[in-house]
Amino acid sequence: MTGKSFTAAVLTLSLAFTLAACGRVEDAVSETTVPAPAGAAQPTAAATDSPEDNQKEDAPMIYAHVGENVLAIIPEDNSSAEDFIALLQKGDITIEMEDYGGFEKVGSLGRSLSTNDRRITTEPGDVILYQGNSVTIYYDTNTWNFTLLGRIQGLSQEDLKDILGEGSVSVTFSLKDSL
After folding, report:
1. CA nearest to 151, candidates 78, 99, 101
2. What's the whole-model pTM score?
3. DSSP codes, 98-164
4. Which end of the chain is more exposed for a tag (fewer CB within 10 A), N or C?
């Protein structure tokens, strides 16, 4: 083997080992659990980013009325949900919603609210403010930059699909559980 061939072979092997060692490090780290030392501070709600941590416990419940069904929504802890609640304190809001993409119902709010967009993957039951002026109810998943307004409680994906139906649906958002 010549000096150039040997050098090329060594560089190729080095590169291969380097790339193999760097691949998917985050998976290995996320699967490793290291116990905290005795007396160490526990993570706070701000340090963990599970969806439940961002729900506002002292905010009033929001209700979505769909036909004879009443869907309870726990509001998210952000200024957009606060703005939405402030609107609802002035009166109920009815939105004509249409299917979009096979995973959500969407309709115009008729005004704009502040946004708190962040990259999330929606779950069935998520109520999203889209582009500051549309409300969506997700019955499947989608990943994008959204503002989460709240989460519908106690319903499965199939329940949501049955309640929302196909095509257009009229949804009245309210702070009252009965209209």
Report:
1. 78
2. 0.70
3. EEETTTEEEEE-SS------EEEE--TTEEEEETTTEEEEESS--EEEEEEEEEE-S--HHHHHHHH
4. N
Q: How far is CA 47 from the centre of its chain?
A: 17
Please spell the DSSP secondary structure of 38-70, one letter per residue.
Answer: TTPPPPPTTT---GGGGB-SSSPPEEEEETTEE
pLDDT at 173 over 80: yes
Q: What pLDDT digit, counting tens, does each position of 120-167 carry?
A: 999 999 999 999 999 999 999 999 999 999 999 999 999 999 999 999
CB-based burial label for 171 (10 Å; 0-12, 13-18, 19+) = buried
Q: How far is CA 80 from CA 3, 34, 43, 148, in A?
A: 66, 37, 26, 8
Six-digit token string for 155? 């319903």
